[in-house]
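Why do we care about 3D structure at all? Because function follows from shape, and shape follows, mostly, from sequence. That is the central idea of this module. The next example makes it concrete: a single protein chain, its amino acid sequence, and then its structure expressed as tokens.
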Amino acid sequence: MSGQQYDCIVIGAGPAGLTAAIYLTRFHLSIKVVDAGKSRARLIPCTHNHAGYPDGISGEALVRLMTEQAQKYGASIVPGRVTRLDRVEDGFRAEWGGGSVLGRTVLLATGVTNRRPPMDEALHDDALAKGLIRYCPICDGYEVTDKKVGVIGSGGHGVAEAVFLRGFTEDITLIAPDKAHDLGAEDRARLDRYGIRAVDGPCQAVAAHEECIVVDTAEGHYTFDTVYPALGSDTHVELAQQVGAALKEGVLVVDSHQRSSVPGLYAAGDVVLGLDQISHAMGEGGVAATTIRNDLARERPILREHLSGSIAAKAV
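And the structure:
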């Protein structure tokens, strides 16, 4: 472990973490970014929902450009999955397989992982690349306008996603993932009201062609233009738990300036409660970085001297 103590350790280099890294380095703060390479944004074949790219941009390209921008201003980005976070005197220590680092503050931008439907991994990845499987109806519901869509899910969450997608197409089928649907009278009534079919499971996607995906269910084969898994996600809060940060409903609790319940620990992006969108994650990354800068400035007069009154007023 290097003897250097950084102003901030950024854990995760997706849109939230990289936005924060750009801000922090331009604030002339010393940072270390540690990234496991699992950003959910990297899986997006092409987003047409992100402002500034009228022809769309792949998640991989967007992350690459943001990485280059952060590094242009001196951000140190290293690969690794941080497995241990400890509070130490005057800050934190983060550890991963390739090393460890000390920081006065930590920004968690560790995100979430979508739960995948029951299907072969290679088939899943091929279908995802072709847009036959999609995970974010807010991002790309427009792309399935008037198409035949299957939603793999059940219960209130599955029903809610199917109803949301009903705003884009009339042809929606809700498929139970592993057994027969267990839907209450209110959920059944919502499906009936919107003309959404309910098909019992178990189900498995068995084939992906160029323009359609085939799902095998307890009631037979169904062919769709796109399938949306509505199976929930797993939020990466393990590091926050290690230092005793407060959680609520499985996500990290932060205030309006991205501060957690642990002094010096901040969080941004999908690891906290909010709209799981690239633009939202970027906004939170910018807020978190500015808050970190201002909080450190209160402790370090040399930073305070450079802090403009307008920034100070916004981030108090």
